[in-house]
Amino acid sequence: MLYNNSIKATFLYRKNRFIAKCKKGSRILTVYVPNTGRCEEIFIEGATCFLEYSDNKNRKTKYTLTSIYKGDKLINIDSSAPNSVVHEGLLKGIINLGFENKFIKPEYTYGDSRFDFYVEGEDDKAMIEVKGVTLEKDGLSSFPDAPTTRGMKHMKGLANLEEGIKPTALFVIQLEDVNLFTPNFVKDKNFSNTLVKSHEEGVNILCYNSIVTRYGIEIKEEIPYTLEEIWN
Known about the structure:
alpha+beta; 3 helices; 15 strands
C-alpha cells in the first residue's frame, strides 16, 4: 500500500478521536486521524510524523496522519492499511493459509457478521478477520489498546462458522521491529478471553509484522504469538 503525497511534520496533540494538530514549519495543520484507538503511547508532542495530502475539495481536512515515530520505530496508524496489505499479501502468496488461494472476496457477509475476507482454494475455504496492531513494547506487540466489543463479536463469529470453512484471525502489526504477539488482557480481558476460547474451538491465529516507510506499508513476515498473559 502506497501513499502518493507524503509530508513530514511534527505532532502536537490529538484534539479528539478524529482530529489532531501537527506543525509544518511555521504552519499549524488540522489533520484527520484514521484510527479510533487510543494510541496514547504513540501520540506524543514533538514526535516526527508523516501526513498524506489530499486536494479533494469535498474533504474537511487536507491532511491524513499515516505514520508516526515512537522512538526509532516508525508505526503506521492508518486503520485502512491492514486490510489493504492483507489483500496484497494474499494476492502475492505471502500470507500462508495452508493452501493456495484461487478466489478472494473482501467484505464477506456471513450470518449477522461481516468478515474482512473469504478465500477459496482448490478444495479449501477460509474466512479471515483482520485486526491492525499499533501497540508495542520491547519487541512485544499486543491487541487491543482499548476495549472492543466489535472485535469480540468477530472472534465469536469465527468460532461459529460452518464446518469446512477455516476460521482465521489475522493480526497485522503495523511496524517492523517486533518478534511476538499477545492479546492484551490488561486493556480488554473480555476480548482476550474470547480470542483464547475461540482458538481452543478451532480458530486459526496468524500474526504478521510489516515494513513501514513514510511512503507506504507492506506485509513482511509471519511472527509467533502466545496466548499467555504476559503484557503489562
